[in-house]
Amino acid sequence: MSETLMDHATRSIEVGSKSFAAAARLFDPATRRSVLMLYAWCRYCDDVVDGQELGFNVAAPASHDAAGALALLEAQTRRAYAGETMQDPAFAAFREVALRHRIDPRFAFDHLAGFAMDVEGARYETIEDLLRYCYHVAGVVGLMMASIMGARDPRVLDRACDLGLAFQLTNIARDIVEDARMGRCYLPAQWLREAGIPPHELAEPRHRAALARVAARLVDHAEPYYDSARAGIAALPLRSAWAIASARNVYRQIGIEVKRRGPRAWDERAGTSKATKLWLLAKGAGSALASRFSARDPGTRPAALWQRPGASADVRRAAHASAA
Questions:
Q1: SS3 content of the chain, % helix, strand, coil (to 5)
Q2: Across the strands, what pairs with 52?
């Protein structure tokens, strides 16, 4: 069963995220196993809600009950936390990881709430509204990943969440046209009005120049979150620091490429070449080694950044635990 779970998890990440798959190879074997299994659960939940399998459609939209699928995922997640035997490989993997690393159930259910936002067809008026969505679908994944790596300090968790936010903002900028063709728009409505782009016309070539400016704005908005995330790397074990620093470099480079291409950003999917990935992984190694000579305390997080839900409560709990 153990090898079946690992095979499933490895296939999930190789199909679902080539960028993160490259960085994931840098973790020590035990951490890599848990990270891949968590990713497999996240990918599975996303696919179940969308009626897909590893990102490919398997159910006709008219016949797919997304709300029902989400309710089933929530019930299965509760069962996993209760320690029940799970037949589905993704949930068997999740149970093992969640219980072993004491992942806060709040994080898992916050993640499922992000899929509910998609099911409900949520629209985002401001960048703050969009960041709330990014928290649910990606920031909270950073919190769960950090828990696997042994992070418990709320200040370190904040930085992990910031990296997830930056990743998602980059993904949205890269996939604007692809998402629009599926009837999805994640861009702030306020920004689109300022750019003169009707949301239902996002995929039309005549708006590419204006869309490129909106995408560049989104990429620029991700930068302070990438910067904030860097401050948390010193608190991680060396191999984990290398993997996370490398993933940060790779995703950030994708955003840079989207911005560089301008109106041609969506002619083909923006990514990084094999040579560039190798360079960014080497750069990540340098960052990880340098972090060994830095203070493990991430310091004060910039007040201007969007704050994740529950952060203040986490700080109070940590202070109480230290005093006990």
A1: 75, 0, 25
A2: 57
Comparing C-alpha atoms, which of 131, 307, 166 is closest to residue 244? 166
CB 127 within 8 A of CB 221: yes
Name the CATH code of domain 1-104 (choices 2.40.50.100, 3.40.190.10, 1.25.40.20, 1.10.600.10): 1.10.600.10
Exposure b/e, 21-38, CB count within 10 A at least 16 = b: bbbbebbeeebbbbbbbb
Q: Using one digit for the tens of pLDDT, what is the confidence trace for 184-205?
A: 999 999 999 999 999 999 999 9
pLDDT in tens, 36-61: 999 989 999 998 998 765 444 444 45
Task: Quickly list DSSP for 64-122.
Answer: --HHHHHHHHHHHHHHHHTT----SHHHHHHHHHHHHTT--HHHHHHHHHHHHHHHTT-
pTM above threshold 0.90: yes
Is domain 123-324 classified as CATH 3.40.630.10? no
Collect all residues with Cβ–Cβ distance below 8 Å to 287 and sequence separation of at least 6.
230, 233, 241, 242, 245, 249
304 within 8 A of 147, measured Cβ to Cβ: no
Between CA 54 and CA 61 the distance in angstroms is: 16
DSSP 166-191: HHHHHHHHHTHHHHHHTT---S-HHH
